[in-house]
Input
Amino acid sequence: LFTGRSSANKEAVQIADDPDNHAIFVDTKLQSGDDGVQIKTSDAEIKYTWKAIIKKTETDAYYFLFINTIQAIIIPKRVFGSDDQKVEFQKLLLRNLSLEAEIKDEMHAGE
Output
């Protein structure tokens, strides 16, 4: 008997075992400031201005900064060393994200 869960697990193992997907598992450094968000790995560096973020949403554990309808910068809240750092990041988001990105977050808050 095959279930959707075992199929998903099998796909996850295949993805993890594929050497072409090594970038998924490398250490990633994220920096943010008033100029935007910068993501650095040993292989790449990507910079996003705040205008590139079309929607922000969050859960208890993560921030999701969407750059299009299917791709997001995912920031685990556990990376913040203190509540003060998390508050400063939230202030940075409020100061720099467009009103439209914030409204989209508010509209989906109950989902």
